[in-house]
Amino acid sequence: MSKCLLATATTGPADVPASPLHKDGRATEDLQAAALATAPAVTPSCQHHDVIVLLKIHLNALLPISRLPNEILAEMFLHYKAAMRLHHRRPGARAGADALAWLAITHVCHHWRGLALDTPELWTSFSVGGRDDETDFVSSMLARSKHMPLSVQASLYKDSNHTSLETVLHDLHRIDSLDLELAPQIQDQLRDAVPAVAPLLQSLTISTTERGSSMVGPMPTLFDHCEFPALRELEVTGFRLSWTSGFLAPSLTALKVTCWGRYSAPWTPMLEAISRMPMLEHIELSGSVTLASPADHYSPNPPRTPVTLAHLRYLSLTSGNISITHVFDSLLIPASCQVSLCLRACDVAGSASLAPVRDAVLSKLSGRTTIGPVKPFKTFSVWKELPTTVVVALWRAVVPAHQLNYANPHLPRPDLRLSIMLFPSTAEDVLGMCSHLPLREVEVVSVAHAHCDMPAYAWDMLFSFVPKVTAVRLYDLDDPVQDIHGMLTAAYPSSSSTLLVGSGAPIEYLAPRLRELTLDSVRFREAFDPEDDMLLSELTVALNARRAAHVAVDRVCIVDCKNMGGRDVEKLRGAALVEVLWDGVERVEEFPGFNFLHGMGGPGSVAGPLPGHPGLGARVGGGGGGGLPRAEPCSWF
Questions:
Q1: What domain range is 47 assigned to?
Q2: Which pLDDT tens digit goes with each residue over 74-98?
Q3: InterPro entries attached here (predicted)?
């Protein structure tokens, strides 16, 4: 019987007769006769089994899905494989054989298996893990993909079997995407497997398996004698890239280098290498790869001839040395290019000056080292990335204040991002640097005050160089009462001593166009004191003072705030005469023995979320008039 089963399982589509219904419309009662007539000559012991198999084949042919053209069914297989691979790459997914779960479509029926085996696109992307039993799998994938271009991902550790990857590299002429994660011990064993040219290779990723090591190893030598005429994307992680390497082909459009550890890499050879890649559109240099050598460590002048990258769309430079600004200043790039500069663990221990960063950025924003017109910034955000890095982000478009959360996946990438590690630099140094930037057209400002260690007079400094601000977002304030009051009452020094309401003296506010205030993740009171209304009182006083000075804030937006409820929204509306938008979120910090929601007004309050619309807030209209406020869905959220 096992011999009979083997013969049946290996019967290909060419051996399967066409469905009688598809040929001449005979009724299903004739299927058995057709099966017997077309059955191959077999021994009596196998005849019964073969007849059953043939009957199932004919019955499968009558199903509606079997009437689909093979081209459509093959396209469905490709989409299924892509969906399954994406599903098993999700966080928390079980690794291993799940990556090949899509192979189940080859075990549904003879027709599906035959069509899948005859669809080479289905076998062009696969992974290699260096297992001992992997050679046959790789050989089958190479054979079934026929002559189609390949996409291969391989992870080989020091004890892995390199035979399967060696088989793949012998077919390097067919590969257009290659992702290698290699242990240093494997590299020498693969050197002879690489041919002299990779004519189709467009994307190459090389990373080390020793990510926990503090040392940076040299680049693998297995590709030293290989040419890459079509290479467009190169990513190197954890290796010391040589800027004279053959990887750096003129055809490159994307270059990403991530490194750790400490070593010197003179920026002059790096710029010379970049100048030979004029088609670059995306550059990310992260880690210590751009450190200057001791000879030019503190060279005051960048190279005289700038490197022109007319197609560059995104530039990210991360380093622990201030000389990274020389590289930035030496690039002539489009004014529309998005830029990210990050200084971490700066080697400026003797000097906390951020003047080199400021001068390099101003060179770009003034148009001296850019191509095309420079547009003004409209949105400004400053926050702290733990533990000690202050981030300044700028957008040329107006980004709504409530969207300016760096954890928001829909937040557009900033047009300019400056990330500076504190110590020896301070938050005051960062704000001082920002005061030199062209920010006078900024309309939206976001500050994570608790995370920036800003000085007490920071709002006076900030509003002095963003005079046209119309919306402010405050996130996770350390001292919300003082910070909110200080922001709303920031005034020119001549009137700073007359800020008491009722004093009769005129107040000249620093942000006269401010019309919208967003409170995001602000603690309204401590959980153990639900009757504490100090924040509401100070907020009301400041809002009314601005209204009396004819620079009123018209709208207050409350997003994901803590220890507050619908009663607070009603009180603020009535006392400050402003439009209040609340997302309806009740975030209550636990404190034993207190029923916080009972005191603050729970979800059932008039300003709470609307029934049937979770996540939608309520619009509470300000102004006069009695009765309950009108609650509507808040499309703003």
A1: 2-67
A2: 999 999 988 887 766 655 444 444 6
A3: LRR_dom_sf
